Amino acid sequence: MSSDPIRIDVVSDVVCPWCFVGKRQLEAALARWRETHPGQPVEVRWHPFQLNPDLPAEGVARSSYLAQKFGSADTSRIYANVQRAAGAVDLSLAIDAIARQPNTLRAHALMAAAPDEASQDALAEALFTAYFQDGRDLTDLAQLRDIARSAGLTDPAIERALADPQAHEEVAEADQRARRAGIRGVPCFIVNGRSAVSGAQGAEAILDKIALEAG
Description:
The protein is built from 10 helices and 6 strands, in the order βαββαααβαααααββα. The protein is an alpha+beta fold. The longest helix has 20 residues, at about 15-35.
């Protein structure tokens, strides 16, 4: 078995509840792998996918978004399956607390600005928590600044991510690359650029791909 790092590229959107569930499944898979294979490092990198790239920068009312997308704003019906999956990984989702559906371009630009794996993971966690547990408005720049600072990003990096058109273009291009690669839904976990798990299939599915690539 090689000691070279195994790379896991996680394609996700910060407003995808299945991606939050998938993050917990990934964490469980990595904990098990690192316990049994302490000499085989794994590196994780997060990449953007916008579920709703055409939303305006200011977002839309969550109730309007749900009614247009699902024909109903009844979250108990729409999210019954994801709530069950979240419970299975000890994750609480306060979906009814969400008031605004954001365009996630700036949130993804912040993720891209994270300088290392630890800070990117911390920011992913902070964004998921802010949206799905605290009901925070991810269209509000002050909120995004606060969330990014909590994950350790510097103010210059935050301001570039929020305001620089080039940073936003890079996110849009990365989103398009994912679509050209055949990704149509998230989360998607790609191990060593070859083996993929599409959707929140569980820790075991991710472990199987890691083991396959580790040889």
